[in-house]
Amino acid sequence: MSTVAFDVNGSSVQVDLSARRLSDVLRDDLRLTATKVGCDAGDCGACTVLLDGEPVSACMTPVGRLAGRRVETLEGLHASGEVSGLQSAFLAHGAAQCGICTPGMLVAAAALLRVTSAPAEQQVMDALGGVLCRCTGYRKIISAVMGVQTAEIVEQSPPVGKAVGHRARRVDGARKVNGADVFGADEAPDGALIIRIVRSPYHRARFQLGDLVGYVAAAPGVVAVLRASDIDGRNRFGVIPATADQPVFAEQEVRFRGEAVAMVVGEPTSMAALDLSAFPVTWDELPPVMSVDDALAPDAPRIHDGREGNVLIRGNVRRGDLDDAFAATEVDIEGVFETGFLEHAYIEPEAGYAQRIGDRIEVQVTTQSPHMDRLELEAILGLPEGAVRIKPTAVGGGFGSKLDLSVQPYLALAAWKLGRPVRITYTRPESMMSTTKRHPSRLRVRIGATLEGRLTAMDFTGEFDTGAYASWGPTVANRVPVHAGGPYVYDAFRARTVAVHTNGPVAGAFRGFGVPQSTIAQECLFDEVADAVGMDRLEFRYLNALTAGVPTVTGQVFSSGVGYRDCLEALRPHWTRAREEAGAANADGGSVRRGVGLAGMWYGCGNTAMPNPSTIKVGLRCDGRIALYQGAVDMGQGANTVMTQICADALGVDMSRIVTLGADTDTTPDAGKSSASRQTFISGNATYHAATALRARLLLLCGASDEAHLELEGPHLVAHDHGETTVVDLGSLDADEDGLVAVDTETYNPSTTTLDEDGQGDPYAQFGFGAHMAELDVDLELGTVRLRRITTAHDVGRAVNPTLIEGQIEGGVAQGIGMALMEEYIPGRNENLHDYLIPTIGDVPEVVSILVESGDPVGPFGAKGIGEHSLIPTAPAILNAIRDAVGAGVRRLPATPHRVLAAIAQGAAR
Ligand code: FES
Ligand code: FES
Question: 20 to 30 A from 683, CA-CA: which of 71, 158, 459, 604?
Answer without folding.
Answer: 158
